[in-house]
Known about the structure:
This protein is an alpha+beta fold. It has helices at residues 3-27, 201-237; strands at 37-46, 55-65, 72-74, 81-84, 89-93, 96-100, 106-107, 113-114, 120-121, 138-140, 145-148, 151-155, 159-160, 168-169, 174-176, 182-183, 188-191, 193-195.
Amino acid sequence: MDNTGYTTLNRQAGLLRSMSSVAQNIANLGTTGYRAEGVIFSEHVVDLGTREEALAMANANVRNSDLTQGALTMTNGTFDVAIEGEGFFLVATPDGDRLTRAGAFTPSPEGILVAPDGAALLDAAGGPIFVPPDAQSIAIGADGTMSADGQLVAQIGLWGPENPLKMLRAEGVRFEPGGAPVPLESGRMLQGFLESSNVDPVSELARMIEVQRAYELGQTFLDREDERIRSTIRTVGE
């Protein structure tokens, strides 16, 4: 295969990764706190080590997450909390602490405030949050302070990555901080709300069509190039 074929194959691989991210976004249109993802195409030049010109190749190995605010939906749930502005919740998982915007929590049988899969929500000091089992009313302030029957019991932490460029998407709606998470004060918490996915369905469908057409064009080129090579071999063989 010549250099043109290798370049096209490299491009096709990137388009497949892009289509995978589109499918992931569409599948999570209704997922609370989901952040849309994409891939970043980058170009590098390969030195062929001969008299031929250098070969430019495109990669799409970097996954990029869109951190813009999603729509807020009122649920009136006591332990449903949405973040308005910057910041993340910090939850403790078996694989380490994770940042997330998914704010649907509930008290565990032990009284610890947890996510649906049991990951403990952490307070401003990085510890689990205990909810008094006999509390008649729970109030959560804009700064994350939680009161039970008028008595302060905890403050939900608002966190961010030390370096946003090192934050990596982990499982589902969670991110690895890429280092020690840092406390933030710029965001605002709203009790009884959840943040929806920030995926724009119209944009994703348009992107899906665009990527699919680009892939089909690349495949058509490879098919024609394959036929050209086969025809040349047949001609030479005669």
